[in-house]
Amino acid sequence: MQKAVFLDRDGVINDNKDPVNKPEDLKLYPWTAQAIRLLNEAGFHVFVVTNQGGIEMGYFTHEDLQSIHHQMLTELSKHEVRIHGVEYCPHFKTRCKCRKPKPGMILKIAKEHQIDLGSSYMVGDREMDIDAGRKAGCSTVKIGAPYKNADFRVDNLLEAAHLILSQAKAK
Known about the structure:
This protein has helices at 32-41, 62-77, 104-113, 127-136, 157-170; strands spanning 4-7, 45-51, 85-89, 121-124, 139-143, 152-154. By secondary structure, the chain is an alpha/beta fold.
């Protein structure tokens, strides 16, 4: 079984002060590539799990989102960083099993990639990210304001990567 780190996108990998509706809107944080590289080097598979209700709301299309994710993966690959997969939920009002705080995206990836959820982490900047990770059986790392249900709290993804590596060594 493989260990993994599940990352929310907006607010974790990239700045989300402004909506990300097209590739040129995507602004990776300066520490993102370094953080993911550390996780890759430690043997973690890294996946992005992101709510993208803007599709159902009509702000952008599935094709637009594919272009945004292609841009993200292209930028990260320049730093020899690997994202093992990207899952997104296009729903906003529709009842589904994939929109966080439900764990559907994480569970789907875990099944497809033989992920050991008990040795894995969910990193997010919103309470719904943490709740999805907990429901899936992952340890959780909250970026930003504290949340009582999170296992850990840090300021950014690079701090999260260091924390995850220190926790993995302790196990």
